[in-house]
Design goal:
The protein has 436 residues and is of the alpha/beta class. It contains 18 helices and 18 strands.
Length: 436
């Protein structure tokens, strides 16, 4: 868990920022001025980032930054400033501040800045050799997924039922396959997956448990079913919350007794399988609404692994992007091998509501339309307040200056007006020396 030091002389602002980042699973410590903050920084507990207001009594934000640098404390520093203090914010950047944001700020913009700065700090500390890992098909560099994969390696050899939770598109199916590979490292044991909502409810029971010829109209031959196919291996039930109650009852019997009956048959069949399930639904809430069996829930959740959304593990965007570029370039005969820095900044600033699945589609499209070895910002199509990501036309410097002036120096607001990411706009401001 990352540890933030928030410095502000306004108690209400301290509470707001503390609540904002605590909800995002940061550990937050607060200080009322630079002097108090510097004392904390010299204590035994380490911090990962300082988020400080500019105007404070005793020791202001600039003074705190100077003391940090003079003491040799290597810590990313983000300054919160007012519209009329842009020049002081620029001074802070020259002194080594990682970034600044102007009041009043959008909370999502602030969270995005903190995530990006922490991501860049992690990459710098790790070095290029530690940016990516491919663990049984799970590609990552974040601590969050590293910890999950450590758990996977420990629990995979057991016979415990595992439930994977988290938003759609976070890679639960890939992790399920990794669990299977660790459980059966040297065998040809089957891994059978079924996407429950993709199968009509009336057909899901027969798809899982199979049927005998003549069991229903159109059943012109025997069908073994997914359970039979997975015998001796793993059955992965993706979005298990979509199972009907009758199918849940048959699945519970399979888990408790190791037997099931295909449709149209009165003879029980045996199956020895490992169940891995996944869901993006709140199963306890479904239980309270009598949509999911409580006894089944307790049988399938011996271990619960929550897979965090992509926006909470930005370190994984780079290795995933690199993997998808290589994959789709090879599959489509393209020569794209990398992505422009401005483009990567755009990917880092985006919130990824569709998670890895959305990133995959964005890079697939970018590879297809790219004309050279480097994917540019123009090749990336990301929704941003109803707009597509694109470079600024014509006389960029003039347009940027006018937009910043119209927004009183608020970079976040200017970026929204221009239809580009905050990171991309910062790069252009630096490129044209607009502020400084």
């Amino acid at each position: 868990m990352k540890r933030l030091l928030i410095v502000d002389d306004e108690v209400n602002m301290q509470k707001v920022l503390q609540m904002l980042f605590t909800r995002d699973h940061y550990e937050v410590v607060t200080a009322s001025n630079g002097k108090e903050a510097f004392t904390l920084l010299q204590g035994r507990k380490a911090f990962d980032l300082v988020l400080s207001d500019l105007k404070m009594p005793e020791l202001d934000g600039i003074g705190l930054l100077k003391k940090i640098k003079e003491t040799g404390i290597n810590l990313p520093f983000i300054l919160i400033t007012a519209y009329g203090s842009i020049s002081e914010a620029v001074e802070a950047m020259k002194l080594g501040a990682a970034d600044f944001i102007t009041k009043p700020f959008n909370k999502d913009d602030l969270k995005s800045i903190v995530r990006r700065v922490l991501h860049e700090e992690t990459k710098e500390k790790q070095g290029p050799a530690a940016t990516s890992r491919n663990d049984e098909g799970v590609i990552y560099s974040s601590d969050e997924i590293r910890k999950i994969m450590e758990s996977v390696r420990k629990i995979a050899p057991s016979n415990l039922s595992i439930m994977l939770t988290g938003e759609s598109g976070t890679g639960k199916g890939i992790i399920a396959r990794a669990i299977h590979n660790y459980a059966f490292p040297e065998s040809n044991s089957p891994f059978v997956a079924i996407n429950c909502p993709a199968v009509p409810e009336t057909l899901l029971e027969s798809e899982l448990f199979g049927y005998r010829k003549g069991a229903f109209t159109g059943a012109d031959k025997d069908f073994p079913g997914k359970v039979s196919m997975a015998d001796g291996g793993t059955l992965f039930l993706d979005e298990i919350g979509d199972l009907s109650l009758p199918v849940q009852a048959k699945l519970l019997k399979l888990l408790e007794e190791g037997v099931y009956e295909p449709l149209g048959s009165t003879v029980e069949k045996k199956a020895h399988i490992r169940i891995i399930s996944a869901t993006n639904q709140n199963i306890p809430e479904m239980i309270s609404r009598r949509k999911f069996r409580e006894d089944l829930f307790y049988r399938i959740n011996s271990v619960i692994l929550e897979i965090p959304p992509l926006r909470d593990r930005l370190e994984d965007i780079y290795p995933l992007t690199r993997y998808f570029i290589e994959k789709f370039s090879s599959e489509n005969g393209k020569n794209a091998v990398s992505i422009a820095e401005e483009g990567m900044n755009l990917l880092q600033d985006y919130s990824w509501p569709g998670n890895i699945r959305e990133l995959r589609n964005v890079i697939h499209h970018a590879v297809i339309i790219s004309d050279g070895p480097v994917i540019s910002v123009e090749d990336l199509h990301l929704p941003r307040n109803g707009k597509k990501a694109e470079t600024l036309p014509g006389a960029e410097k003039t347009i940027i200056e006018e937009t910043l002036k119209r927004n009183e120096g608020n970079i976040s607001a200017a970026a929204r007006d221009l239809g580009i990411s905050r990171g991309a706009l910062r790069n252009k401001i630096k490129k044209y020396s607009i502020i400084g």
